[in-house]
Write a structure and sequence with these properties.
The protein is 40% helix and 17% strand. It is α/β, with parallel strands linked by helices.
Amino acid sequence: MRFVHIDNLALHYRATGLDQGKPLIVFVNSLGTDWRIWAEVIDGLKEEFAILAYDKRGHGLSDLGPVPYAMADHAADLAGLMDHLGLSGALVCGVSVGGQIAQQLYHDRPDLVAGLVLSNTAAQIGNPEFWAQRIERIREDGIEAVAEGIIERWFAPDFRRPDNAAHAGYRNMLIRQPVEGYLATCAAIRDFDRRADAARIAVPVACIGGEADGATPPELVEEFARSIPGAEYVLIRGAGHLPCVERPIRVVEIIRGLAQRIWGDKTDA
């Protein structure tokens, strides 16, 4: 495990191949998870690419930091981590709020971003009333009180089979997240609206939708993709909100295809 202080905040991260001259892919996790949701995707790409994954503040093994958060705080953490490691020009892959952090990073520090894979996300997710209700419910009753509804939005019915141990494992990941970090990130999502800026994104982009996504429905992601010049939209059948968990091989294919657009022959194994 690796840790570093970025502006007095301890971040937990994983890095491989940074000193081998390979193109760089950065992974950003979703609300209520840690970097391990990308583990199988990383395994499919680590021979060809340098990899950086981390737990955003208030999640996993990273510090909580001052609450509540703005999306700019999350993006500044990632920028600080990349600066610390001497990295730039990455293909940044974010799912859900991770995709919003990736957008914010692009707008704040375009030098760090060569392309974007924006999975199950949009320039605005939900509305203030929805997030206010979720924050109030969790503050009163805890994450476990709403866990079943969240898991239903995360995963397709086939993944939620009682005999699927992974279903239980990801539920454990959700309910064991720090409550204050979860709620502070809910506030960041509530306040995030970059719809007016989507047309300014000028790097290669792939947007991924999940056929069974109950959190960011595929039509929302497709509409978001249409707002970004030249963006590709890919629908993954049989996947919910976290295709990186349910369909990692397909996600690897999409990332590899966008990397080929960005770097060409440099991505050859």
